[in-house]
Amino acid sequence: MTTRRAFGAILVFVAAGLAVAATFLSAYSVQVELQGRTFRYEATSWVTERDDFRGALLLGPIEYGEPAVGAALVMALCAGLAFRVPAARVGSLLGAGVLVGVAWSAVAGVRGTIEKLRDLDAPVPFDVEQGDGVTMLIVAAGIGVVSAVLHQELPRRVVSEPVVDADGVVIHQIEGDDSETPPYGFPVIVEPKEPEEPREPKSD
Amino acid sequence: MIDRRKIAALLLVLGAALAVAGSFEGTYRTVYRGFGFDQSMTTTLWIVTTEPPQGGPRDAYHALGWPVVVAAVLMVVGAVLTMRERTTFVGRPVAMGAAGALAGIMFSYLLQVRREERVLSELLVKNGGSNTLDVLGGAYLLGAAAIIGLVGAVLAQQRRQRKQAVEAEEEKVVVHQLANDDDTPPFGIAVLDDEKRETP
């Protein structure tokens, strides 16, 4: 596993963590000032946290909790599994794709809420705000895509194809740094020899 | 081998086509019966039409038309790229990511429709009417598109796995055991040192 792929795997875990965290943060809020009082609605992706309108606006959570957690699980499991089974790497890309879809749906959900409240033709304007949860989900999706692509590490193996010489011997050229063993090996530090030499043939 | 690649590309294109077609079909219809007449609203991924009509169609609350179209286009791009040997390595991740995105969009949409259904059933108690929500063909079409797309994307990955397995085998270090006593012993053959060199 190269450094880039390992870095990708770590970022996949970060994206998955952010995605799960995003589901517990505020997804959106609706606020209205009425006769000096502030009415507020606020929801995460799982539950309504505050509803001063007592259900009159028919608002509800934007349901991205389950898909986001599902995507995060797929990403994290595949990134973990990929340390053993390289083919599992593609799962992190699947999870990242799902996350992008979910994030886009969540944004569309917030837009839809703005639209819905505009249709009510209320005398006072509703102040609809996208919450930190949706913003964090977008960030998680972005990191997810970048990390999943890093994690794939598209093939560069063409450069170092094994060379087969005349005797049928396969020579692998390994890309690496200067810290590798030099062609004639490292010089051995010779210690002063002991007088006895056990492996010397005793023919005389 | 080539057949599998073709099947994968075909499934990806089919999934994309179904998704785009499904986005224009009605996904669900809500019927409100609290107004003295039946007010029905048919939703696609783009617009909502009301029956009897009330000032023309308006944007859907969960307007996921564009995300679906973008995912579908990427799926087709991925399918085309996997068909060419040179670009396959780009096509596979694109196909997988796009199919994942479509699945994510549809999963979210499905949950949102279910929530809408729950809200409607709560409303039922309040105004005494019997509001209903019917899931229409478009929703099934989109669901099928997401599943077909995922199957296509997974099939498109198959060949790489096999190739990798072969590469992994190739990279194994081959150890030759020579069955001969002339072999070099593990610690090398003892060198007969000169007496001169030994004494300092």
From TrEMBL, chain A:
<keyword id="KW-0812">Transmembrane</keyword>
<protein>
    <recommendedName>
        <fullName>Tryptophan-associated transmembrane protein (Trp_oprn_chp)</fullName>
    </recommendedName>
</protein>
<keyword id="KW-1133">Transmembrane helix</keyword>
<feature type="compositionally biased region" description="Basic and acidic residues">
    <location>
        <begin position="191"/>
        <end position="204"/>
    </location>
</feature>
<feature type="transmembrane region" description="Helical">
    <location>
        <begin position="134"/>
        <end position="150"/>
    </location>
</feature>
<feature type="transmembrane region" description="Helical">
    <location>
        <begin position="68"/>
        <end position="86"/>
    </location>
</feature>
<keyword id="KW-0472">Membrane</keyword>
<feature type="region of interest" description="Disordered">
    <location>
        <begin position="175"/>
        <end position="204"/>
    </location>
</feature>
<feature type="transmembrane region" description="Helical">
    <location>
        <begin position="93"/>
        <end position="114"/>
    </location>
</feature>
Automatic annotation (TrEMBL), chain B:
<keyword id="KW-1133">Transmembrane helix</keyword>
<feature type="transmembrane region" description="Helical">
    <location>
        <begin position="63"/>
        <end position="82"/>
    </location>
</feature>
<keyword id="KW-0812">Transmembrane</keyword>
<keyword id="KW-0472">Membrane</keyword>
<feature type="transmembrane region" description="Helical">
    <location>
        <begin position="133"/>
        <end position="156"/>
    </location>
</feature>
<protein>
    <recommendedName>
        <fullName>Tryptophan-associated transmembrane protein (Trp_oprn_chp)</fullName>
    </recommendedName>
</protein>
<feature type="region of interest" description="Disordered">
    <location>
        <begin position="179"/>
        <end position="200"/>
    </location>
</feature>
<feature type="transmembrane region" description="Helical">
    <location>
        <begin position="94"/>
        <end position="113"/>
    </location>
</feature>
